[in-house]
Every structure is written in structure tokens, then in C-alpha cells.
Design brief:
Blueprint (H helix, E strand, L loop, with lengths): L1 H92 L1 H4 L4 H10 L5 E2 H8 L3 H13 L5 E4 L9 E4 L1 H9 L5
Antiparallel strand pairs: 1-3, 2-3
Helix pairs in contact: 4-5
């Protein structure tokens, strides 16, 4: 009987080994199934999230680039406006170098420097020029910046339009030595 016991024991040991191998194979299969059912979909979801994050970063970079371009455009426009303001200030601060009125306009300012409001025909007669020519120069002086003269008019055709010197007109005369 010992031989039978040995044979049975050997057969049982071999069967046990096979069972362990099968058990390991089942565990392996179960692990692979678990991977397929759970881990692989999670990895796929992680990849999708990474793609979304990448797309969001690209959109963010595009928006930053757009904002930088807008900033550069606004900065350029502000610089241009600033340069124009500086030029205007310089022109206003040194009118003897920048603002040079012609002889007729200067003569009108000198005539109006007494502060009286005068109609165009009176100004024209004093300067010995035509009234339309005087009105042309009066309108130029009224439209200038800085304002050289004031215009007083009324909607009624019976009231004459009159002109008077403004403070900037006086300043021009003083700076050019035409008022004492």
C-alpha cells in the first residue's frame, strides 16, 4: 500500500500544483478582466481630460495673444493722441514760434483790442478792405484754437453780428509786441 499511497500522493501533489496554476491563471484572467472593465476606461478618460486641458490652454494662449495685440493697438493709439496733445501744448505755449497770423488777421485783432463789439462792416471800413473779405478772416479767427475772437449774433436779421477780441487774441498781440 505504500506504493499506492505514494502514487496517490504524487497524483494529489500534481493535481494541487495544477490547481494552483489554474487558480493563478484564473486570478490573472480576473485581473485582465478587471483591467479591461475599470482601469482601461479610467486611462481613456484621463487622456480625454488631458486633451480638454490642452485645448483649454491653447484657447487661453490665443486669448492672451489677442489681448496683447489689442493692448498694443490701444497703446499705439494713446501714444499718437499723447503726441498730438504735446504738439498742441507746445504750439499753445509758444505761439510766437508756432502761430503766425497773416497781416489782415493781425490788423483785425489790433482794431478789436479796445474791447468793443464791432460789426463786420465797421471792421472792413477801418481796415479798408471788402466786408466779405473781412468776414472771411473774422470766421477764421473765430474758429481757431486758441480762440482769438468772440462772435455775437442773433437769430433776428435786424440784429447785426458783432465781433470782439478774446483773451487768447490779446495774448497773441502781447506776445508779438503789438499791445502796449
Amino acid at each position: 500500500m505504500p506504493v499506492i499511497t505514494t502514487v496517490v500522493a504524487t497524483a494529489l501533489a500534481t493535481a494541487a500544483e495544477k490547481l494552483v496554476g489554474l487558480s493563478q491563471k484564473l486570478d490573472e484572467l480576473a485581473t485582465n478582466r478587471l483591467l479591461r472593465e475599470h482601469v482601461i476606461p479610467v486611462r481613456e478618460e484621463i487622456l480625454r481630460v488631458k486633451e480638454l486641458v490642452f485645448e483649454a490652454k491653447q484657447a487661453q494662449f490665443s486669448e492672451v495673444a489677442k489681448l496683447q495685440q489689442e493692448h498694443a493697438n490701444e497703446k499705439s493709439a494713446l501714444q499718437k493722441h499723447n503726441d498730438e496733445l504735446i504738439a498742441t501744448i507746445q504750439r499753445l505755449e509758444s505761439p510766437d514760434k508756432q502761430l503766425a497770423l497773416d497781416e489782415t488777421k493781425t490788423a483785425i485783432l489790433v482794431f478789436l483790442s479796445d474791447g468793443q463789439e464791432r460789426p463786420s462792416y465797421e471792421i472792413a471800413a477801418h481796415l479798408k478792405i471788402g466786408e466779405e473779405f473781412a468776414i472771411f478772416h473774422l470766421n477764421d479767427l473765430a474758429d481757431m484754437t486758441p480762440k482769438m475772437i468772440y462772435v455775437f449774433s442773433n437769430a433776428s436779421p435786424r440784429v447785426l453780428t458783432k465781433y470782439s477780441i478774446a483773451q487768447d487774441g490779446r495774448r497773441y498781440l502781447v506776445q508779438h509786441g503789438l499791445l502796449k
